[in-house]
Write a structure and sequence with these properties.
This protein is an alpha+beta fold and 259 residues long. It has seven helices and ten strands. The chain has one domain. A hairpin with an 8-residue loop joins strand 4 and strand 5.
Length: 259
């Protein structure tokens, strides 16, 4: 469609996007992800449980659906939806569930692209899944994560609020949206080439999936660790002179860790 046709049919296109569930389509774009160093494999796993920190989505990136997700789009959904699932390739079947319920914590975190391992400037808000992945729940994906093979994720979502942005002075309303959100886009070269994008300011999270290639490829696995056996955990305490109070320890964790 031409820019003119997109603007003329904006209401219909928005209604269509709101009526569908968005998944990965496996089409890439021009951000170079070759140098990213993330997702180190966990070697010699003996436990039947691992902890996986997975970036399901990142904001400020023009994806292959023509969307730019705006910071805060997940806030309402994360508060309201208590049934979010971590899935294999968007397959809503029992044997494709990786984690859910008490084994899954979904949150939104603001970080820099460099903190994710990418040589890019600026910040992004990630949709982060902290999943307890059990071997007997999904043996195949347990091994894929443990061996460091999962490099992309995709959010299964439903649009709630989105706006058309167009880089053309002839369309004042759409150009105002462009001017508002274009400065925050990480891959501006793709927006320039396309001439338009959809600014998504609110969406419902339904699930997040491990996929071979995501529509937004800035979605790595950032940590895989062997989960401690709760039944045989060992507590080692420092000497009295070096012990921290619970409050002091929590403050350190807040500074050093994501959670």
């Amino acid at each position: 469609m031409t820019i003119q046709e997109i603007v003329e049919n904006k209401a219909t296109l928005i209604a269509q996007k709101k009526a569908e569930i968005k998944h990965a389509d496996g089409v890439g774009y021009s951000i170079n992800t070759d140098t990213v160093v993330v997702n180190k494999a966990t070697n010699d796993i003996k436990s039947d449980t691992i902890q996986v920190k997975a970036v399901i989505n990142t904001t400020r990136v023009l994806d292959s659906h023509g969307d730019v997700h705006i910071d805060g789009l997940w806030n309402k959904s994360l508060k309201e939806n208590k049934m979010i699932m971590h899935l294999q390739e968007h397959s809503l079947k029992f044997d494709s569930i990786i984690a859910d319920g008490k084994d899954l914590k979904a949150s939104a975190k603001t970080v820099t692209f460099k903190e994710l391992g990418y040589d890019m400037e600026g910040e992004t808000q990630v949709l982060l899944f902290d999943s307890t992945v059990k071997r007997d729940r999904n043996m195949y994906m347990f091994k894929q994560y443990a061996d460091g093979h999962v490099n992309n994720h995709s959010v299964g979502m439903q649009y709630v609020k989105l706006f058309l942005a167009v880089n053309d002075e002839d369309y004042k309303e759409e150009k105002a949206i462009w001017d508002k959100y274009y400065p925050m886009i990480a891959n501006k070269q793709d927006a320039d080439a396309q001439g338009y994008f959809w600014a998504v300011t609110e969406a419902k999270v339904i699930e997040g999936s491990a996929v071979p290639i995501g529509s937004n490829q800035i979605t790595p696995t950032i940590e895989v660790s062997e989960a401690a056996d709760k039944g045989t955990s060992t507590k080692i305490e420092p000497s009295k002179g070096t012990q921290l109070s619970v409050k002091e320890f929590k403050n350190i964790l807040k500074k050093e860790l994501w959670n």
